[in-house]
Amino acid sequence: MTRHRKIRTGTAGLAAASLLALTACGGGGGGEGANAWILTGGGWPAIEEDLDRFNESHDEDISVEAMENDAYKQQIRTAVGSGDAPTLIMSWTGGTLLEYVEEDRVVPLDDHVGELQERVHESVWQNGVVDDSVYAVPMNDVQPVVLYYNQDVLDEHGLEVPETWSDVEEIVDTLADVEDVDAFSLAGGSIWPALMWLQYLTDRHGGEGVFASVVEGEEGAWDNESILFALETLQELGEEGFVDNYNAVDAAQNEDAQLLADGRAAFLLQGSWVYATINQDFPEFADSGAFGYAPFPQLEDGAGDPSNIVGNPANFWSVSADASEEAQQVAFDYLSEHLYNDEAVDDMLNAGSLPPLNDVEDRIAGTEAEDFLTFANDLVGEANHFQLSWDQAVHPDQQQPLMDNVAAILQGNMTPQEFVDDMNARQ
Amino acid sequence: MFDTASSASGARAAGRRRQGPSFLMALPAVLFFGFFALVPLIGVLLISFMEWNVLSSPTWVGLDNWDTVISDRPFTWRALTLTGIFVLGSYLFQAPVALLLGVFMAGQQRYRALLAVLYFLPLLFSSVAVGLTFQSLLSPYYGISAALPFDWLPSDWLSNSDLVMYVMIFVVGWCFIPFHALLYQAGVRQIPTDMYEAATIDGAGRIRRFFSITLPQLRYTIITSSTLMLVGSLTYFDLIYVLTGGQPQDAVRILPLDMYITGFGANNLGHASVIAVFLVAIGLTMSLLLNKISGSTKMESDKAGA
How far is B24 from chain A (nearest CA, A)? Predict the structure, then answer.
């Protein structure tokens, strides 16, 4: 569950052919200059512009290459593994960062972060800390998952934004009898949006400790009543609640957002980046006044803190241990002097993205996305816990099985118990 | 579509057959082949005996990977079956359509040239673009099923595990039929027209001429095209990956896709290499067998006067 359109390009596919060529083209240790790989779409072009400004104002140069999300994830691993990593390595932290640190592929940044540590929200900052050392620093906006809604649909069927899970059940019941309108849009074909449901349901039911045990590798941690509850609820929603054919809806094409905009679904649980997507791709809906957003509802007798949120705390920069010393120095300069400079922060705010900084509150006022930014800022500021997306949080060896199993749950050919048993076997 | 397997057999056949020009002239090709096909192949073979998750350094585990993939991983056999269905289905769909289209395009009438250009277009599109276009076309809410007023039309083309294999065979066929039609068109154009004239004088009708002259004369084109189709679909990857990623229920996770997901999704290069070696072995066997059966090693010209 990462940000932005997951257009599965064949660029990634080409890497399959390189399975054959991998050994033939052994690593060359990276060039002299510093470089960075970033993603395409969403707020990434702004990051590229900011890096360009750094290049213009410094003698040093960081060359940038942008690639698509899935392609990036697969190529960065090969690049890091072969010692050809870019100087600045972008990650979502979690299991991947842990592995980089274990393999000594990234360097500690404690002495090179300037004032960043004081400026960044503690809950976000902690993601980049491994064994009391900083190995990664946030570099873009925080991406909480929120519940978007279409007010027109709610009005038409006499519904209100749910505050508790029984509200949700009522809404599902009401809309069950309505033809061509369902409660929740879900891009099940992309699988990762379903993780958002699992994460919130697990957290509301059992609190953040449940998944923390999984990440810590505790024996049998998956077989937990809260995770089972979340999986069962997901399958129930699959029968009644999600749009028909949700397994054919694709997030890469923003079909899930379109279903909400078209009034085919009342709600959509998605990352904060969808706010920008809807404004760009469905401006009529965005400007109609019917487009709204709310926190995930509370589970009445759940043990979780209702202020907890899930999503991506941010994307993070690490510095490659395989890069030359000059290149590393350029990267350090960039991190300590340039990252989250005033102009970059303003650009982010104007684009509707919220940097994870504690000094932006005053600057939100007057931006175009003021309402949404205020909402997101409160959500993040008041959150007791920020759960990193599960697919990023787990050990890299578990990522693929996790996604395969979530797919099986969505498609109904695995029971919740089989899911947790299989995941436990991989702990 | 030209993979190591078909070029391997091609290179070998070329090396053995002639006494004509000196071996030196083949040297660039041989060097290329050695560097880009043999070296990686040996690499893959070596990795298949190692445990390697890309990030850490590989460790030697002997036959463990082979043992796991063959006897401890039921999905290997399912993927093999799926690959068989895909290869056979693709062939049964592509071969007749490409043959008929090629014969049709070889005609001389002017409008055919225009149609030939249209048929040829899919070959020029990038497979990612084709994939995304078909993804939109097959979307349940915004695709053809929603646009057309037929209730019997399924709307879950890509999410129905019973259907998705046929959808893939169709889409991949749509992309590659033009290429094979082009081969057949060229083949038909080389058949001497006096054969047809003689047959017409003898009273042979259109259908009789097709089966008695066109088909037999196209023998070698059919062999070439069949080899490319079979080995090509055996190693086919991109459209299926873009459109489905192997889902739903792994119904189209054929071997090449399984190799990729195992290697770069699950970061298990050892297992992926075992699958890659399978693929190479199957591909080589298949093209060698095709060569053997068709007798194309003794291939000679049968054109009048040649």
Answer: 24
Q: Write the pLDDT tens digit of every residue in A179-189.
A: 888 999 999 88
Q: Is A26 on the interface with B (CB under 8 A)?
A: no
Instruction: Give the pLDDT band (50/70/90) at residue A202.
Output: very high
Looking at residue B54, the DSSP 8-state letter turns out to be S
Are A195 and A1 in contact by the 8 Å Cβ rule? The answer is yes
The predicted model gives A21-31 an average pLDDT of 38
Going by pLDDT thresholds of 50, 70 and 90, the confidence category of residue A195 is: very high
Q: Cis bond leading into B149, ω under 30°? A: no
DSSP string spanning A272-336? THHHHHHHHH-HHHHHTT-EEEEPPPBPTT-SS-TT-EEEE---EEEEBTTS-HHHHHHHHHIII
Q: What is the DSSP letter of A425?
A: H
Name the band, by pLDDT with cuts 50, 70 and 90, for residue B3: very low
pLDDT tens digits, A408-421: 999 888 999 999 99
Kindly give the interhelix angle for A396-410 and A192-206, rounded to the nearest 10 degrees: 90
Question: For residue A268, which phi and psi values (nearest 5 degrees)?
Answer: -145, 125
Chain A residues 105-164 with CB within 8 Å of chain B: 105
Beta strands in chain B (DSSP E): 50-51, 59-60
Give the span between the Cα atoms of A207 and A307, in whole angstroms: 11
Over the Cα atoms of chain A, what is R_g? 21
The alpha-carbon gap from A292 to the nearest alpha carbon of chain B, in Å, equals: 23
Amino acid identity of residue A155, one-letter, is D
Residues of A in contact with B247 (CB under 8 A): 189, 191, 407, 411
Compute the 3-state secondary structure of chain B and give helix, strand, coil in percent, each to the nearest 5: 70, 0, 25
- pLDDT tens for residues A266-314? 999 999 888 888 888 899 998 898 999 999 999 988 888 899 999 988 8
The class level of CATH for B4-297 reads mainly alpha
Rg (Cα) of chain B, in Å, rounded? Answer: 23
Please give the residue that has the higher pLDDT: either B89 or B124.
Answer: B89
CB A62 within 8 A of CB A36: yes
Residue B76 parent element (H or E):
helix B74-105
Catalogue all structural domains in chain A, each as residue range(s) with its CATH number: 10-142+314-359 (3.40.190.10), 143-310+389-425 (3.40.190.10)
**B265 CB within 8 Å of a chain A CB:** yes
